[in-house]
Specification:
Radius of gyration: 19 Å
Distance between the termini: 10 Å
Number of helices: 11
Structural class: alpha/beta
Oligomer: single chain
Strand order of the largest sheet: 2-3-4-5-6-7-8-11
Largest sheet: 8 strands, parallel, barrel
């Protein structure tokens, strides 16, 4: 059953105004795990909100969530990195300064950031770096895995290699796998529109047991005519986490829409996971247009409540 956006928006605003949190004794919210299914958010969803130290954690709490895929820029800002804007808006000099800072960053700063997340009842199960592969230097790779470990994350997200040329990436990927094994942190491959139901039948997952899947069910729905739930069933033991969004199919324009109004079988996904007892984090990724009278915190909260209702 779909919720009323307009009615729920008011409740969301009130929740955020009082600093709604993941484990709040006053409001009784015990976290965003519903019938065993963890519902979280990738912090990319808050990219339209102001950046700054501590702001991302506040946004997560305002959305009523207790588990996250943490964008590297969000945690690096909190750890003192020389950045005050989104990474894709940084110029060449700013990117160079960030790269240099990373090589000398004190990992204890990240442990301090994690302590704040822990105190708020928010768990970062995965960290997303925009660039991580076997072509990076040892120091650059070690830094990324150290950050993931410091934040208590079990995996790092990266884009799946070009499905048409996966075999050509073998040496690169196997070097990455060696670092993943060294640090005991998985690599979870994320998809946009480039994969189909045969992509992971290839050699990629065979190269290392450190390689997992960050399955974006919305993008898969938009790119393919095959059942995304069949993918979840087939690869459930290699799926580390799932991005949840509602997109329409190719026939309906591949649009990003509010939850419950597109073609992505979100209800089927949640019911399948509930039935099978699968507990992979299902992270909301806000990509539809935000209404003029709302913001990302409110819209993620609306999406969270939709997910909760569909889990039942």
């Amino acid at each position: 059953m779909d919720i009323s956006r307009r009615n729920f928006l008011g409740a969301t605003a009130a929740f955020a105004a009082f600093g709604g949190c993941a484990t709040c004794p006053c409001c009784g919210n015990k976290g965003s795990v519903y019938a065993g299914v963890p519902v979280g958010v990738i912090t990319y969803s808050y990219r339209t909100m102001p950046t700054g130290v501590g702001k991302t954690l506040g946004y997560v709490l305002g959305s009523g969530l207790s588990t996250i895929e943490l964008m590297s820029n969000d945690v690096e800002i909190d750890a003192g990195a020389p950045m005050n804007k989104l990474p894709w808006k940084m110029n060449k000099e700013e990117r160079a300064a960030l790269a240099q800072w990373r090589l000398t960053a004190d990992i204890r700063r990240f442990e301090e950031v994690r302590a704040k997340y822990d105190a708020a009842g928010v768990k970062a199960h995965i960290v997303k770096f925009g660039e991580i592969d076997g072509s990076l230097s040892d120091a650059e790779l070690d830094y990324r895995f150290k950050v993931a470990r410091a934040m208590g994350a079990g995996a790092i997200t990266r884009e799946v290699p070009d499905p048409k040329n996966i075999a050509k990436t073998e040496a690169n990927m196997k070097r990455l796998a060696a670092f993943a094994k060294k640090w005991d942190v998985k690599i979870a491959f994320h998809n946009h529109l480039q994969i189909d139901d045969k992509t992971y039948d290839g050699p990629l997952l065979d190269w290392s047991d450190q390689f997992m899947i960050n399955f974006d069910i919305g993008h898969f729905t938009a790119a393919n005519d095959t059942d995304p739930l069949a993918m979840v069933k087939k690869y459930h033991d290699r799926i580390y986490s799932i991005h949840v969004k509602d997109r329409t199919s190719k026939a309906h324009g591949q649009k990003n829409l509010p939850f419950g109004t597109g073609d992505t079988p979100l209800t089927g996904l949640f019911q399948l996971m509930k039935k099978e007892g699968w507990t992979q984090p299902c992270d909301i990724e806000l990509e539809y247009a935000i209404p003029a009278d709302s913001d990302a915190v409110k819209e993620v909260n609306i999406s969270r409540e939709y997910c909760r209702q569909q889990i039942g």
